[in-house]
């Protein structure tokens, strides 16, 4: 028979050995939110779930069970084989630890495939995430990366992360770059997914002496940061990247690849067009339509983003501030890396960074 385990037991098992977590809910439920790292092997697809649910509500529980059994029986060999092909220990879950995960675990047990079943399902996991973030005690010191649009803040954090520095990539977690153009070429995560990914990252970095993250607004795309992250942003050490305008234009062209997303960019720009001086806004629009993206970016920086950022910089008056004047992203990486090594000589070797994260 299968074994029911709590979320606490599941996390302990994950720390000790290989554990594959399998979400047996429908594909749309899985896409909406799931336990990070889990696979999706649905007992019912979206249409089947809707059909069974309608029978449950409008006919009877027994009618829903009978139809569910018919649907599962038809695809049982393929369903079982998907689980059999996954090596190591496995834990299944559904919405709240009910019929779908129980049916899956029972069927697998009959075929001598042992799995655990998560008590309370995804609902229990979501409750744990919310309670954990609400009471989270953030211990590492925060270094906050600032800079005008185009200074490559996100790219800088990605480089640092690849070299095992303790980084929280808030934009990556949100699936959004945090601006009116932030979703271009990306898929924004909802609040539930953002919360889950953020908490898992925080737990990974909880023993680091410090963390680095970008100075984001409280809302990033579809998600809102928890209040303690806002406090860290305000009280941490502020690292400011200053870079020439032409270098910033080049960095934006590289990051956004506007030639691949012309219509998305036009749609996004026209949402803010009324906030820009009319002749300038008209020229930006013409440039985007004509594919003259560099000129459009230049004008947006000069007439929209830079004035906004100049105002934002006044909000961190009492925090420690360190400024790095660089010409391009490579120089920014070298400058920040050298500064961190001087600040934290006990962790200056790459091997020690890996121990921290």
TrEMBL record:
What Gene3D superfamilies has UniProt attached to this entry?
Answer: Rhodanese-like domain
Cite a single Pfam family from the UniProt record. Answer: AAA_SelU
Metal-binding listed as a keyword: no
Q: Which GO terms describe its biological process?
A: tRNA wobble uridine modification
Keyword terms of this UniProt record? Selenium
Question: InterPro entries attached here?
Answer: AAA_SelU (IPR058840), P-loop_NTPase (IPR027417), Rhodanese-like_dom (IPR001763), Rhodanese-like_dom_sf (IPR036873), SelU (IPR017582)
Please name the source species: Paenibacillus durus
Quote the protein name from its UniProt record: tRNA 2-selenouridine synthase
Q: What residues form the membrane-spanning segments?
A: none
Q: Which SUPFAM superfamilies match?
A: P-loop containing nucleoside triphosphate hydrolases, Rhodanese/Cell cycle control phosphatase
Task: Tell me yes or no: is Ion transport among this UniProt entry's keywords.
Answer: no
User: What would be an example GO MF term here?
Assistant: tRNA 2-selenouridine synthase activity
- Tell me which residues make up the Rhodanese domain: 15-134
